[in-house]
Each structure stands twice: as structure tokens, then as C-alpha cells.
Amino acid sequence: MTVATAIFGGTFDPVHYGHLRAAAEVAEALGQVDFRLVPAGTPPHRDTTMALARHRLAMLELALTPWPDLAVDDREVRRRGPSYMVDTLRSLRAENAERPLILCLGQDAANQLEAWYHWGELFELAHLLIMTRPRSRPRYPAMVAEQIHKRRVRTNSALMSAPAGLVRQMEITRLAISSTDIRRQLARGRNPRFLLPESVLAYIHKHGLYRDHQADE
Ligand code: ATP
After folding, report:
1. Ligand 1: which residue has its CA nearest to atom 14?
2. Ligand 1 centroid to 19 CA: how many Å?
3. What is the domain partition of the chain in residue ranges?
4. For residues 6 and 34, is the Cβ–Cβ distance under 8 A?
5. Which residue's CA is the nearest one to ligand 1's atom 6?
6. What is the pLDDT of residues 116-146, one digit of tens each?
7. Ligand 1 proximity of 11 Cβ (cutoff 6 Å)
8. From the CB of 10, is ligand 1 less than 6 Å away?
9. CATH number for the domain whose boundaries are 4-175
10. DSSP state at residue 58
11. Ligand 1 atom at shortest distance from the alpha carbon of 105
12. Ligand 1 mutation target, pool 102, 108, 175, 183, most atoms within 8 A of CB
């Protein structure tokens, strides 16, 4: 039986071992948690994704097939319009008012929090669990820093004591892997093996994804 729900959102364009190892370590550290990876449909913070939502969802499902304790939640892909995390959290909160809800995000994403739609409401809906990421130090604008500072807790068990509103920083294995780098390697005809699961790489080749990628150059 699980006692909390954890959400890990992203574009997963494509999913890689940086995402998967982060999910595994956080899920293990939290214990009895319903852990869900949530691919964004139309992400509001970037101009476009490179692969269609159905491909990103399929790759995530392939990567997690051997690991049923890490689930894929496709609600953002199914929803029309831009994917706002606050809407996702509201819909989860509507399912259960009391259960701890934990939003997991990497340090680079946390540094951008002020740009998120209705970011202040996130604390009313969920806890934040901020995971270390290579090349990203904590750097918050004043208003976000103030919120994070006053809500900070140092243990996982503290997150289980309330439904929402707390912030925990978690040290995880630092893997300097990014989807941008993988897309760039594929566009240059290089082989990004060992940065992502074989099943995902086979899917990318089968569907001819990321071959003509020009962005981020
Ligand atoms: P891109 O290079 O396209 O921006 P990305 O590799 O950063 O992609 P996203 O899908 O944008 O991956 O990230 C989703 C979430 O996963 C974010 O919260 C991000 O901080 C986190 N994340 C991604 N890669 C890592 C990593 N190597 N270590 C820790 N967290 C990561």
C-alpha cells in the first residue's frame, strides 16, 4: 500500500538515464510512494518539442516496462492545450485532499519556477522535492527563495506529515546527461548508447526521430 503520490514531470524528449536514475533514487528514498512520470503534452516553457507527444509517451513506457513500481501518467498528453503543472496537481489533489503529493524536479527546473504558471499555488497543492543536477546550482529569484527558505525540511518523513507546502532538497547521483545532448548526437550521426535504455534507442531509430534536429546548435 502506498501512502503518498510523487509526480515527476518533463518533456522526456527522449527519456534518458538521468531521468530514470533520479526517479529510482527518489522512489526508493521515499518508500511507500505511488511514483508517476508525467510527460508534458504541449510544454509552455519551450517553443516546441522535437518528437510528438505520442512518441515521447511510447519511449517512456518502453523504458519503464521492466519497472512496474515507476508508472507513467499520461494525463498531460491527453489534455488539450498547454501542459501546466498546476492543472496536473489540481486534478491529482481533486482525487484525494489529504494524501501527501510530492512534485519532483531537477535543480535547473526549480531555478525556473517563477516562470511557471501560477507558481505560488504549487505550494498549496504539493510538496517540492528538488533533486541535484550537474551544472545547476540553486539560484532563485527573491520571491521564490523566500518561499523555499521558509518551507524547507531536511527529512523525507517530514514530507509525509502534511499533504503539501514543504520543500526538500535531495542529493542524487549526479549524471550529466541531457535530452538536448542526446538529440544533438543523433543529429550528427553519433551513437548515444549507454545514455538511455536500448529499447528507447531502438524506438528512435525505428521511427527516424531526431535525425534532422537543427535546434540548440
Ligand atoms: P532538455 O535537454 O531537452 O531540456 P532534459 O534532459 O533537461 O531535456 P527534461 O525532460 O526537460 O529533460 O527534464 C524533466 C525533469 O528531469 C526536470 O525536472 C529536469 O530537471 C530533470 N532532469 C533531467 N535530466 C536530469 C539529470 N541528468 N539529473 C537530474 N535531473 C534531471
Report:
1. 10
2. 6
3. 4-175
4. yes
5. 178
6. 999 999 999 999 999 999 999 999 999 999 9
7. yes
8. yes
9. 3.40.50.620
10. H
11. 18
12. 108
Is 105's C-beta closer than 6 angstroms to any atom of ligand 1? yes
State mean pLDDT over 29-35: 97
What are the tens digits of pLDDT across the range 50-108?
889 999 999 999 999 999 999 999 999 998 888 899 999 999 999 999 999 999 999 99
Contact 179, 196 (CB under 8 A): no
For ligand 1, the distance from its centroid to the CA atom of residue 72, given in whole angstroms, is: 16
pTM higher than 0.90, yes or no? yes
How far does the chain reach from its first CA to its final CA, in angstroms?
47
pLDDT band at 217 (very low <50, low <70, confident <90, very high): very low
Closest C-alpha residue for ligand 1 atom 30: 106
- Cα(13) to centroid(ligand 1), Å: 9
**Contact between residue 4 and residue 158 where contact means Cβ atoms under 8 Å apart:** no
- Which DSSP helix (H) or strand (E) runs through 35? strand 33-39
Give the pLDDT confidence of 162-205 residue by residue, as tens digits. Answer: 999 999 999 999 999 999 999 999 999 999 999 999 999 999 99
**By three-state DSSP, how is residue 101 classified?**
strand
